[in-house]
UniProtKB/TrEMBL annotation:
The keyword Signal does not apply. This is Biotin-dependent carboxylase uncharacterized domain-containing protein. InterPro entries: CT_A_B (IPR003778), Cyclophilin-like_dom_sf (IPR029000), PxpC (IPR052708). Keywords: ATP-binding, Hydrolase, Nucleotide-binding. It comes from Jannaschia helgolandensis. PANTHER family: 5-OXOPROLINASE SUBUNIT C.
Length: 323
């Protein structure tokens, strides 16, 4: 059991989301950074639902010792005042507290426990989808049931998905409606992640005029997916997120491939982003591989009871080789 002692705004429980409800007007939802769940899976095994915080401070208390995995955008973390590294799985002792504070690196951070938090399931998922009134933000006093389990401390190699960069696009059915000159200008444009953004999507800004199709006011409403880059009436692009609307009439110039969606959602305001169209084969080849995990070795300076530890497993004689 994990208790929420204090909590900033818009902290929720998220998992892989709920598929199969697009035709009923419900977006897939789930974690904004699916690669963070891959990292937690590698550290703990199949983790299920975890805590997602969009840079909001968070303080948790363990009721029963358990291992916790910290992934996604790095935060300043400590356990009972002892600083702990990010992208690791470490033991949170019974009654110990875990404090998380934003560091400004990335947007979405995650806390997972072995087996995941056993919160209420709705439509096959534990993920909160606030726009659809499914679930609610966490608040102080919430108790998150789980199965306490202590695992070996481990760390996972950090991936380079923070700070913006290149986003690869697949064409949508509406890409061909944009003139070739507009598509070329789009690929050559340096965009900046705007201040406006949430789990529904993020707004981009750029120098120069907006992007438009011919006769776009005559477009009929069509289906929409997370990752679609949609142009508003003034030609400003939005990258749609996991809680985006499911239909819309604005043209969509392309769709960010799944491998690059964490980079798009983790871009902080002011981060620079560019786009490049790729083929379906290139998008499939870009699918993320299993994260690399290694044992977590503590610095001896952090171990106050070093002399009490059994550092040598046996004694041997220097003359054994002569006998």
């Amino acid at each position: 059991m994990i208790e929420v002692l204090s909590c900033g705004p818009m902290v929720t429980i998220q998992d892989r989301g709920r598929a199969g409800y697009l035709t009923q007007g419900l977006a897939h939802g789930g974690a904004a950074d699916q690669h963070a769940l891959d990292d937690a899976d590698a550290l703990l095994g199949q983790v299920g639902a975890g805590i997602e915080t969009p840079g909001s401070p968070l303080c948790l208390r363990a009721h029963g010792a358990t291992t916790v995995a910290l992934t996604g955008a790095p935060m300043r973390a400590d356990m009972d005042g002892r600083a702990v590294a990010w992208n690791t799985a470490q033991t949170l002792e019974d009654q110990a507290t875990l404090n998380l504070r934003p560091s400004g690196q990335g947007v979405y951070s995650y806390v997972h426990v072995p087996g995941g938090f056993q919160t209420e399931t709705m439509l096959g998922s534990r993920a909160a989808h606030l726009i659809a009134n499914i679930g609610k933000p966490l608040t102080a006093g919430d108790r998150l049931p789980g199965m306490p389990q202590v695992l070996r401390p481990r760390k996972v190699a950090a991936s380079e998905r923070l700070g913006g960069g290149l986003l690869r696009l697949l064409p949508t059915p509406q890409t061909r409606l944009f003139p070739e000159a507009e598509l070329a200008r789009f690929a050559d444009t340096a965009f900046t992640r705007d201040m406006r953004g949430n789990r529904q999507g993020v707004r981009l800004s750029m120098n120069g005029p907006g992007f438009a199709t011919e006769a776009q006011l005559n477009l009929l409403s069509d289906f929409i997916l997370p990752g679609d880059v949609q142009m508003t009436g003034d030609g400003v692009p939005y990258i749609l997120g996991p809680e985006c609307q499911t239909t819309g009439g604005y043209p969509r110039i392309g769709t960010v491939i799944s491998a690059d969606m964490p980079r798009a959602m983790q871009a902080v305001p002011g981060a620079k982003l560019r786009f490049r169209f790729v083929t379906l084969a290139e998008a499939r080849a870009a699918r993320s591989k299993r994260p690399e995990v290694s044992p977590l070795v503590r610095d001896p300076s952090e171990i106050t009871d070093l002399l009490s530890l059994q550092l040598i497993g046996g004694v041997m004689s220097a003359r054994d080789g002569d006998s």
